[in-house]
């Protein structure tokens, strides 16, 4: 960071408005000066941007409105500066098709007495600045086979830890509910977990955490990929395993609610798969092969401590007789608003 | 290498609020490699009892099968985190299987039980951890010429000068990081083979020895990451006329340390002599196979086949320091454990022999 970043701002604050673009997976953003710091998204003005540059509208009617919905402290600009998660609307006030938050918020409100909690395990892969070559992989070849990298230590086991460390600290600072992190099975692949978040919070926190990650990596000339199968062959894919519980599941004896919920979800396997990546399942088809600790995309299954199933019930929850369960199907580039809304629809409606 | 070495990390002074990061460390299925992952803890602590038992996917670490994969990690010791600083901590853990039983690769549990049995004897340990630095490939010793070998051993031990020692930055960083973390690091020196170093941890009583040594190993590998260097704990990394690496283990009990304790020392060594084969099996992670490459009788080792001891004798299995003989009390040094031995297994084996008569 240059010397200029400690300059006084004369009482003004910078708000970085973040939104999801027409791809349903890429993040865009731009900055607005605020005359004074704010503490709530309600104090922030609605803004707009040129949707024809983000696949969100055509040139003739290109203004897209961005409406602030949640704020976080800005770990890059620090001070009173903020990151602002936004929803996108068309000029007529209707939410854009890639604005999945609008419908998610409605369904979360509808079932808020069930207090649905989520925790998402976000996996990702680090690439060099071309975005094409995994960070630290040999120039003309491949690293040794998977085995020693998961949770590893050592320059020949993990690549890019600096970014992981920076991201974790930046998220804690920003107020994102980051719960943990670890090196993953494929070299240069990492995971962090966000949660437990109730309702709409899950999507807000996960999207902002993704922005922070991509932005941190910029500082190091590294590109973050959320592609769910970045390297074909005998290399793990990347997911967004989603852990879920409702109030009833968390109480003593909650296991029957867990099983009931899983069975309901099992009946809607295809509907879930359609929501679990931005391409109606096409991305996940490359990842959910039944190998590499995934279940096949074609079949729904569940089991205790079974990482080859669609849904896994943690061993501890089986022992306790209550708790939560893990849906392992969502892809690393899924939209958490779409995922959490789909889950609540299946189990609460 | 990931190309990020040398870059500063401007985010590490960001305020974390009340939350701390706890880095859970465990030994994987190889019995020698360390794994770890981070958990946010909402309230700071240095007491392992305050920390939750966690779990990980044992099928990725040779510790379970895919269908039955959750392994539990139970915090047993906390140290300050020298990388994340603040109130952040490193947490040494032991592994339990999915029924809460001691995992087969968990060697700490029985060590602790036995240390408790003989705690009135106050067994103290000091381990001399040797290791070798390699470049980021993990295959070529750090600083060795690209196509060849350095000059023969002789000038490197405790040396100074760019042509004598390689990687001192890592040694300096490691020492300071261990002191900060609360590891009982007692000393360090450059070793006989170029790019080989040693540091000593102790004196530690009982179970402490294993906890402090394992975490010191993690800190060392983690520091080396920052410099694109790989640490090898292999006991004979370079075949031929190059020294191996050990974990010479110094031992004493309260009676040995008291005036007139010398006969206790001899008694203990004689007991160990009767169990040479059992000890050798415990002194590396492969039942003695690794040590076969190192304990040749050359390069300041004793042959793996024979037990011997002597005062100031570095070619023996066990050495009694000259000063101890002069004082008539003190400690002795078992030179057999390999650099990749498990200190829980080593210290457990020793006290079973000399304190518990097993």
Characterize the main sheet of chain A: 8 strands, mixed
How many β strands of chain A by DSSP? 13
Beta fraction of the residues of chain B? 15-25%
Q: Most extensive interface: pair and counts?
A: A-B, 52 and 51 residues
Order of helices and strands of chain B: EEEEEHEHEEHEEHHHHEEHEH
How far is it from the N-terminal to the C-terminal residue of chain A, by CA? 49 Å
- At the fourth level of CATH, the homologous superfamily of the largest domain in chain B is Glutamine synthetase/guanido kinase, catalytic domain
Q: What can you tell me about this protein's structure?
A:
The complex is a heterodimer of chains A (349) and B (358). Chain A has 349 residues and is α+β, with helices and mostly antiparallel strands. Chain A contains nine helices and 13 strands. In chain A, the strands form two sheets. In chain A, strands 6, 7, 8, 9, 10, 11, 12 and 13 form an eight-stranded mixed β-sheet that branches. In chain A, strand 7 and strand 8 form a beta hairpin. In chain A, helix 5 (255-266) packs across helix 9. The longest helix of chain A is centred in the middle third of the chain and has 19 residues, at 201-219. The N and C termini of chain A lie far apart (49 Å). Chain B has 358 residues and is α+β, with helices and mostly antiparallel strands. In chain B, helix 1 runs parallel beside helix 9 and helix 2 (168-181) crosses helix 3 (208-226). Chain B is globular.
List keywords for this structure.
heterodimer; A: 349 residues; alpha+beta; eight-stranded mixed sheet; five-stranded mixed sheet; 9 helices; 13 strands; globular; B: 358 residues; Ubiquitin-like (UB roll); Creatine Kinase, Chain A, domain 2; 25% helix
